[in-house]
User: Fold this.
Amino acid sequence: MNSLIVMFIVANLFITAAVLIYVFKHRRVSSQGMLLPNTASVTIEAVRALASFAKEQHERIGNYVQANWSGTPEHLPTVLARLLDAIEQDARAKGVTVDRETLKLLLATSLRSHKVGSGHEVRDALAKVA
Assistant:
């Protein structure tokens, strides 16, 4: 039962981090010092859609990397590039507006949660992915 609670907490932290990264990346400061969205597309519905999308992709990411990566750091960029392309395509198909850099952050967060490779290996692999 404890492992179920831990997985729930980790999934919620993952989703919260992805949403916060997205929101803070698409903000600007008004003349009064208030944070404003950079575009009109940052709405509660857009944030909810991103959170839902991140939650859906978390399990997919873990399964994909487990099935396609041998554990060799040199092969990780190729695996992540294919996975990132698939996630980006899925986001477009579902109408989730998100840039590639945010998707990379979403992917990196999920990989950390799944304990895939070291942080250094994942960071280097994502840096090689366009």
Remarks:
- Confidence is low (pLDDT under 50) at residues 29-41.
- The longest helix spans residues 44-68.
